[in-house]
Amino acid sequence: MLEISPDKIAHVIIRAREYDSGVNAWAHSGQRTGHGTRTELHEFIASLNEDEQASLVAVMWIGRDTFGPEELDEAIETAKVERSSPTEDYLMGEPQLADYLEAGMDALGISPEDTEDALQRPV
Fold first, then answer.
1. Contact yes or no for 45/91 (Cβ under 8 A)
2. For 110, how many CA atoms within 13 A lie in the half-sphere containing its CB?
3. For residue 1, which of 60, 77, 65 has the smallest C-alpha distance?
4. What is the 3-state secondary structure (H, E, C) of 41-72?
5. Whether 26 contacts 38, CB under 8 Å
6. Residue 117, C-beta contacts closer than 8 angstroms, at least 6 positions apart
7. CA 49 – CA 87 distance, rounded (Å)
8. Rounded to whole angstroms, how far apart are CA atoms 44 and 71?
9. Distances (CA, A) of 106 to 98, 115, 116
10. What is the pTM of this model?
């Protein structure tokens, strides 16, 4: 069973896309592109509890076909047992993180687009 909300996964997807594109919404100048987004994403992942982090890793693994969607529980358990570095470092080292998370959500029957759209709705 997935132990992280789709909203949190969508938040990581959105921030990972911003980081990959060099968008830096919090910077005061054009220097150091991506730094604010990188820091925010890194801190967000680090703030997740162990179960949420393991689920996030499992969704990414499902998205890159390391595990199938029917192996979600095994993927989560493997993420917990095999963790050897901070999850935020591991995930942010994955060049296609946003794509893999979207594919993983889709494989699990969760609409990444609907969840992302809901998060980006104007206030």
1. yes
2. 22
3. 77
4. HHHHHHHCCHHHHHHHHHHHHHHCCCCCHHHH
5. no
6. none
7. 11
8. 26
9. 12, 11, 12
10. 0.83
pLDDT digits 0-9 by tens, 7-63:
999 999 999 998 877 655 444 444 444 457 788 999 999 999 999 999 999 999 999
Q: What are the contacts of 30-35 at 24+ separation with CB within 8 A?
A: none
CA 56/CA 67 separation, integer angstroms:
13
Sign of torsion over alpha carbons 92, 102, 4, 115: positive
Query: Which of 94, 60, 105 has the alpha carbon at shortest distance from 116?
Result: 105
Q: What is the 3-state secondary structure (H, E, C) of the chain?
A: CCCCCHHHHHHHHHHHHHHHHCCCCCCCCCCCCCHHHHHHHHHHHHHCCHHHHHHHHHHHHHHCCCCCHHHHHHHHHHHHHCCCCCHHHHHHCCCCHHHHHHHHHHHCCCCHHHHHHHHCCCC
